[in-house]
Design a protein that fits this description.
By secondary structure, the protein is α+β, with helices and mostly antiparallel strands. Among the domains are: about 200 residues, Alpha-Beta Complex (Lambda Exonuclease, Chain A); about 50 residues. The protein is about 40% helix and about 10% strand. The protein has twelve helices and five strands. It has a five-stranded mixed beta sheet with strand order 1-2-3-4-5. Helix 5 crosses helix 10.
Length: about 375
Amino acid sequence: MTEHALLSASSAERWLNCPGSVRLTQDMPDKTSSYAEEGRLAHSIAELKLRKLFLEPMGPKAFTTRMNKLKKQELYAAEMQGHTDVYTDYISEIANSFPSRPLVAAEMRVDFSEIVPNGFGTADCIMLQGSEMYIVDFKYGKGVAVSAEDNPQMKLYAFGALCHYRMIYDIKTIHITIVQPRAGGIKESVISSEDLCNWMAFTVKPAAQKAFDGVEEYAAGDWCRFCKAHAQCRESSTVISAVEDFGGKLPPLLSDIEVGHLLGKLDALKKYSQKVKDYAEATMLNGGDIPGWKLVEGRSSRAFDDQEAAFKELSEAGINEALLWHRDPYTLPQIETAVGKKEFTKIVGGRVLKQQGKPTVAPVSDKRKAYSTVQVEEDFKPIN
């Protein structure tokens, strides 16, 4: 059975911002999903490839045997091979840039309990060479893009690795990388060991102690996404007051200031509403009661009991097969994944055009450059 830390690195963003959530959710049952299981399988494939490259003498036959076991799992998809190659290729490129072979560790448990009570986690890849340390994390999800910049999970891994290797290596610079092929690709950041230690001492330590001691201090934010108490949390429910916060007698139209305030809560409101619905459905399916609500049958759908037999009968009745089947080309990313990034670039890389994205509303804190409406006007000016 997998051991879980109360103050884990993966949940660090939550307990750093909402220390009360730790003890509040401590005894709530863990939930899994097909997405989480899919991610675990992809991680296993990535780990096997990394071990073959750096850690274990593994011939083609042994590697194929172990890979075939993973391929037999229900959630396996061929595209996992291309996505995990992005991860191992990145690590290989960094390793090959050094004058001598670096130290590489895969799926290594790191302990940061020196600062965080009973704190530990598992780092996907740690690589050391001289005074440089690389912490590389593989993310298979595509729903939420994860940033490497100021990432608390990765910084805790880095500190744990720093503590483990400090007697052997004089580490000065730490490179943090998120490899997320299905959501943004490769993202990197750099932090000095001195800055990391200061962050641990002055930011993490007091917050971790609050969380461990069960201080009832709560705050809602992006970190609520995977919190087991999200659907019932009173602090999260404050998102519904997006407009009412202004109080008093108001004009019929919202001001731009109010619109900005509302935009900041819409995404959170959408996610929160779905969490509440999921909770209510699960409660009633388990025999519970949500006053004023009931479960009903959703919209029904139709399907053939035997599609092959049905198509045969339609064809025999003279129905043209063109009415039964349609053929669509795969998208560029799907083809690139299936072929492999290097081979794809070699064959048709020169035919790939990067089209400008459509303007979309984002908070000022977003790291992307502001969209220029002036440039759009210039592009469409009449030519004399």
